[in-house]
Automatic annotation (TrEMBL):
Its EC number is 6.1.1.20. One of its GO terms (biological process) is phenylalanyl-tRNA aminoacylation. It is found in: Cytoplasm. Keywords: Aminoacyl-tRNA synthetase, ATP-binding, Cytoplasm, Ligase, Magnesium, Metal-binding, Nucleotide-binding, Protein biosynthesis. InterPro entries: aa-tRNA-synth_II (IPR006195), aa-tRNA-synth_II/BPL/LPL (IPR045864), Phe-tRNA-synth_IIc_asu (IPR004529), Phenylalanyl-tRNA_Synthase (IPR002319), PheRS_DBD3 (IPR040725). GO terms for molecular function: ATP binding; metal ion binding; phenylalanine-tRNA ligase activity; tRNA binding. SUPFAM superfamilies: Class II aaRS and biotin synthetases. The lineage of its organism: Eukaryota, Fungi, Fungi incertae sedis, Mucoromycota, Mortierellomycotina. This is Phenylalanine--tRNA ligase alpha subunit. It comes from Linnemannia schmuckeri.
Length: 513
């Protein structure tokens, strides 16, 4: 096999004797073999960087026979095989032909009928002509020998029949460059301290650096990130602190048990939750006294509750999972608040929020994904009431551009009372569910160590639904996942929660916009 040095020498000596190389396909090694394409390209680029040569690209199409096409060139076409199998005098039974030729029988019959070589006589096939010319075989042989065919229509037909395939061949035309020489001077790639000291850099030839390239295109914010930033602005305006949400893997203790969600709850089933296999468990819990209080309130009750009356197991709480809601983060933060209150000796009100991904083992469809974003806010203060929650929700959603909301009683294991939040959509002319809300139960808060008069109001909603409404999307898979249109990502407008856009501009809203 020729080395790079051998190919360099061949190209330079050929240029020196012939003045130019019309096509690099004509270059052969000393033993008469063709030179691999990639080897030629590498040498040409190297010589061109030294300005010893210049070259231009030659592109041409070549047609190659497929495996079936080669079989036809060697042993004839399917239709010719059918004709030759038909006895000139007695013909051949159709069933016998299938046994004799296999797949070729079915393929070749249609073409042989079309060419009027054979005809059907009862359950037999008989010849209509004495002899044939197998033009398909001749065409295949011409393509094998020349790489093309004199008739474009024939090429198109054979491509449709999967007998040939088109490939693009690239070669090069080479000419002498301004610094052409038979001797290749080694170029330095770095300016060294020794060159600077002895002055040899003045006469040294340096390899050129290629800084050419397309300027990188700026990034584009995903619509979810734009809507997320609008929510963050609202929370910050209202004095909230953002919770750390980078812990996607959580223990069942923080995701369920600390929230007073029983271990038999359907949400803890593998059909609804992604449990980890390796590692499958973690015993990294807070202090043992808190874990014991959680066990006690589940099993026997406490803080005014009778509990669930079952045998709470630490093994269930140790199971690791992909968090099903960001409320697992809220439970961590509220426990930390209780610890800080204990250390400080006095309670300090707190307002927390989070916006991040959660995971549910759900069937994927136009409105559901196995992962999505949850917006959550909690407020902890003394003697808060349901009226405080409703009043704050009105302020919060007013800032979102949703002035008309109503509440409906609901059930959550860790909030009581609980409410679903609805908004009237003028364009759709119906009430649309926005999220869920409630007050965390004493069984959850007092077990953490918070005083009985400390109440926590909380609410949550998805990020995807308002984003789909704002940007006029019907299918959530067009917003997240492999079906996302990158042009949509690059061209979507800025988001304003307080301005109507997308699906909000429907019916009456379109007139007002």
């Amino acid at each position: 096999m020729a080395t790079s040095e051998d190919i360099q020498t061949l190209i330079l000596t050929t240029l020196d004797t012939q003045g130019a190389i019309e096509n690099t396909d004509s270059l052969k090694t000393a033993d008469g073999n063709a030179i691999p394409y990639l080897a030629v390209v590498g040498v040409l680029n190297s010589l061109a960087s030294k300005e010893m040569i210049t070259y231009t690209t030659i592109e041409r199409d070549q047609f190659n026979l497929t495996q079936e096409g080669n079989d036809i060139a060697d042993s004839g076409s399917h239709e010719a095989k059918v004709f030759n199998a038909v006895d000139p005098v007695n013909g051949i039974a159709i069933a016998e032909l299938a046994k004799l030729l296999g797949a070729s029988a079915k393929i070749g019959q249609g073409k042989a009928f079309k060419n009027k070589w054979i005809k059907k006589d009862g359950d037999k096939l008989v010849r209509e002509v004495e002899s044939i010319v197998d033009q398909t075989q001749l065409d295949a042989l011409e393509i094998r020998n020349t790489g093309t065919h004199s008739k474009p229509a024939t090429l198109k037909d054979l491509q449709a029949r999967k007998h040939v395939e088109k490939v693009k061949l690239i070669s090069y035309k080479v000419a002498k460059g301004p610094k052409f020489s038979l001797k290749i001077e080694k170029q330095a790639t770095d300016l060294t301290a020794e060159m600077l000291a002895d002055g040899s850099w003045k006469t040294q030839t340096f390899k050129k650096y290629n800084f050419a390239g397309n300027p990188p295109e700026g990034g584009h914010l995903h619509p979810l990130m734009k809507v997320r930033e609008e929510f963050r602005k609202i929370f910050f305006e209202l004095g909230f602190e953002e919770m750390p949400t980078n812990k996607y893997v959580e223990s069942s203790f923080w995701n369920f048990d600390a929230l007073f969600q029983p271990q038999q709850h359907p949400a803890r089933d593998a059909h609804d939750t992604f449990f980890l296999l390796d590692p499958a468990t973690s015993s990294n819990f807070p202090d043992k006294e808190y874990v014991q209080r959680v066990k006690e309130v589940h099993s026997h009750g406490g803080y005014g509750s009778i509990g669930y009356g079952y045998d709470w197991k630490i093994e269930e709480a140790e199971k690791l999972l992909l968090r099903t809601h960001t409320t697992s983060v809220s439970s961590n933060m509220l426990y930390r608040l209780a610890q800080e209150t204990k250390a400080r000796g006095s309670f300090k009100p707190a307002k927390f929020f989070s916006i991040d991904r959660v995971y549910r083992n759900e069937t994927v469809d136009a409105t559901h994904l196995a992962e999505f974003h949850q917006v959550e806010g909690v407020i902890a203060d003394k003697n808060l009431t349901l009226g405080d929650l409703i009043g704050f929700m009105e302020v919060f959603f007013e800032k979102m551009g949703v002035p008309n909301i109503k509440f409906k009683p609901a059930f959550n294991p860790y909030t009581e009372p609980s409410m679903e939040i609805f908004s009237w959509h003028p364009g759709l002319e119906k009430w649309v569910e926005l999220g869920n809300s409630g007050m965390f139960r004493p069984e959850m808060l007092e077990a953490m160590g918070l005083d009985p008069d400390v109440r926590v109001i909380a609410w949550g909603l998805g990020l995807e639904r308002p984003t789909m409404i704002k940007y006029g999307l019907d299918n959530i898979r067009e917003l997240l996942g492999h079906k996302v249109d990158l042009d949509m990502i690059q061209s979507n407008p800025a988001c304003r929660l307080d301005k109507k856009m997308g699906k909000e501009l429907v019916g009456k809203d379109a007139v007002d916009a």
